[in-house]
Amino acid sequence: MSIEVAVILFIAGVILVVKGGDLFVDAASWIAKASGIPSFIVGATIVSLATTLPEMIVSVLAALQGKTEMAIGNAVGSVTANTGLILAVAMIFMPIVIQRKDYVKHCGLLIAAAAVLLGFSLSGALSLAGSLILIVIFLISMAENVRNAMKQQEDGERIQTTRKETGRRIVMFLFGALGIVAGSQLLVNSGSALAAFFGVPERIVAVTMIAIGTSLPELVTTITAIVKKESSLSIGNLIGANILDLTLILPVCSFVSGQALPVSAQSLALDMPACLLITLLALLPLLFKEKGSKMQGLSLILGYSLYLFFVL
Questions:
Q1: What is the C-alpha to C-alpha distance for residues 163 and 169, in angstroms, rounded to an integer?
Q2: Which of 96, 209, 214, 258 lies in the 20 to 30 Å Cα band around 82?
């Protein structure tokens, strides 16, 4: 595969994943509500899980093809990009003010997930025990989402719909899912080709190009939050996405591969520690000061830039 073809396929993959994810989330949410599932359950579980599907499919396909560095790099790299790049942009362009009580549990869960991932990978593979602990953190996070959503519980009546509208939403759902799968496969294949062309490990393409590409939905949400001056929307979205990336994607990759997920020395020495450190740099000041500043945002950008410097 030539470099030109690989780049075109990579861009096409990003577009398919992002647009497919958008269609899938909208359709899945509508179908769930039309089935009579309460809105608070839809928002707290189905939408958040569907939003993470692009990263999930990319990593699972990579794991099934034995490209474990790409599987891990995509998940860990997405968390680092969400925090060191997207959250940093939010802090620079709008005042971030939070209530500690609203975020302390999820911040704690995210920090715990990053620490568990690093600690249980020190042997050179994400152990079964580590995967199970991450799944437990995922379940706690989902339960907390539902508990918080129940405080603002809405009417659970079904959406009034027609057969034509139902059919249209089902087609959207199927095309969205197909777009995610096809786009993810393009990202995996073109990412491997780009890595081979530049003579670098697949991990490097995964933690940079693929991770940033699959994080575009979070970037769009953050830009929307900046325009609307809704900092809580941005923070909540990013923390939730990061928790799912670490606690759901990697254990699933380990389970589908049928073995402990091998972790490269480079991931262990650089990617995972950077993910944990940037997460701490972002969240601890927020929890203690209950606000994020432009200076903190610039510090996160600097930290992420240094990470990319050492990666490349």
A1: 10
A2: 258
Give one word for 258, left, alpha or beta, with left for phi > 0 and alpha for psi -120 to 50: left
Contacts of 193 (CB under 8 A, 6+ apart): 1, 5, 6, 9
Phi-psi label, residue 66: left if phi above 0, alpha if psi -120 to 50, beta otherwise: left
How far apart are alpha carbons 200 and 234 in whole angstroms?
A: 34
Q: How many other CB atoms are found less than 10 A from the CB of residue 43?
A: 18
Domain locations in the chain? 3-311
pLDDT single digits (tens) 285-312? 888 887 888 899 999 999 999 999 999 8
Give the pTM.
0.85
Separation CA 164–CA 159 (nearest Å): 14
Tokens of residue 294, six digits: 């432009």
pLDDT tens-digit readout, 24-73: 878 887 877 787 766 656 655 776 777 788 888 889 999 998 888 999 99
Amino acid at 214: T
Instruction: Give the residue from 238, 177, 235, 186 showing the smallest Cα distance to 209.
Output: 186
**What is the rounded (10 degree) CA torsion for 73, 188, 186, 177?**
-70
Taking the CA atoms of residue 270, residue 242, residue 66 and residue 15 in that order, the dihedral angle to the nearest 10 degrees is -110
The band of 164, judged by pLDDT with boundaries at 50, 70 and 90, is: confident
Dist CA 220 CA 151 (whole Å): 27
Strands (E), the chain: 96-97, 125-126, 261-262, 291-292
